[in-house]
Amino acid sequence: MMTRMWNRRQFAALGVSALLAGCQVIPSSGRVEPVRPAPPPPTTTVPAPGSTLPQDGTRHRIALLVPLTGNSAAVGQSIANAANMAVLDTSADNIRITTYDTGTDPGSAAARAIADGNTVILGPLNAGDVPSVSAAARPAGVPVIAFTNDMTAARGDVFVMGQMPEQSIRRTVGHARAQGVTRFAALIPQSDYGQRAEAAFGAAVRDSGGTLVAVERYAPGTTEVAAATARLRRAGGFEAVLIPESSRIAAQAAAAIKPATAASPRILGTELWSGAADVPRAAALRGAWFSAMSDARYRRFSDTYRTRHGAAPYRVSTIGYDAVLLVLRLAQDWRPGRPFPLAALRGDEGFLGLDGPFRFGRDGVIERTMEVREVRTGTVTIIDPAPQRF
Fold this sequence. Notes:
Blueprint: H1 16-21, E1 60-66, H2 73-89, E2 95-101, H3 106-115, E3 120-122, H4 130-137, E4 144-146, E5 158-160, H5 165-178, E6 183-189, H6 192-207, E7 211-218, H7 224-235, E8 240-242, H8 247-257, E9 266-268, E10 289-292, H9 296-309, H10 318-331, E11 351-353, E12 356-360, E13 366-368, E14 371-376, E15 379-384
Parallel strand pairs: 1-2, 1-3, 3-4, 4-5, 6-7, 6-8, 8-9
Antiparallel strand pairs: 10-14, 11-12, 12-13, 14-15
Helix pairs in contact: 2-10, 3-4, 5-6, 7-8
C-alpha cells in the first residue's frame, strides 16, 4: 500500500526553542537543558580511500541511505527532504548529510558511503536491506540506525528506529485493562505483520493479567476474513477484539462482529490506523481504541514541508528529521574525526523529536511514548495522551 501514510506505512512555526529542544536529552526532571556549543573540531582528517567527496575537517559526515528509485522512491525522497529540513531548521554547520540510493543495490550504496568517510549511517528504510548495509558498515566500525520497524534487525551496531506495532499494541492493551477489560480476542491475518501482532497481543494480555479467550486467523486478501470473523463471533465471551489490519479491512470485520451502535465488544486497532482518512467515517469502528505516536508536532512539520516542497510528506518522513536531531544532540560532545559515540545512544533518559520522546533499549530497539485514541462519529479523539518523558 502506497499512500501518504506509508504504514506498512517555514518550520519556524514551531519556534527556535522547540527545534533546539528536539536535540536534547530529556532529563528525569522533565526540564530541557540548554544547548551547549559543540567542542572545537580538529583541523585535519584522514582522507577516505576512494572517496568522491571533498575533504572536510570541520563537519561530521553522515550518510542517509534511502530508496530514491524503485517502488519506495517517493517515500525515500520524503525522508531525505525531512532530513535536510532538520539541518536547515537548526542551522547545523557541524554535519554533512549525503544521501545514497538503496533502490537498486543497498550494499553498494553502503560501501560508497563508507568510502566517502561517513561515520554513521541513517537508514536503510526496508528491513530486507539491513543485512547488506550492515555487512558493508561493520568492518569499518560504522554503526547503522535503520528506519525499519522490524526489531529482529537490531544488532550490537544496528539500531532500529521505526514505529513498532508491538509497542502500539501493548499501549492499547494497557489502556483497555485500566478501563476494566479482562477478556480479549484477536482476528489475525496470516502475514509477517499479523504474526508479530499476535505474539505482541498475547504477551501484553498475559503480562497485564487479562485472558486471551479466542484467536482466529485468515489468509489476507481472500474471503477467509469473513469466515474467520464468523467463527470468532460464534466463540464469543470476549470484551475486546484486536484487528491488526488496515482501517478498511478492520471496518469490514468489525461490522460483522458487532452492531455499529453496540458498545461491546470493543474493537482494538494498531498504529496502521493513524492518519487514515476513512477511520472517523467508518460506523463500525466507532468506539474503537488504538495507539500511535503523537501528531502534535507533525501537523506543523507537515505545513512547513508543503510550503517548501509543494506536496504533503509521508507520515514516516519524520524519522529522517528525528534521526538528524539525534545526531546533532550527540555531536555536541563528539568531535569530527573520532568514532561515533555508540554508547551514548543507549541512555535511559532518551531524546526528544517530532514524534515525541524516544530512546533505544539495550537491544538496540527504539522505545516510543504513544497516545491512545478513540474513534468517534466523524473524528478521532485522544483519550490518553502520550507521556512527555520516560
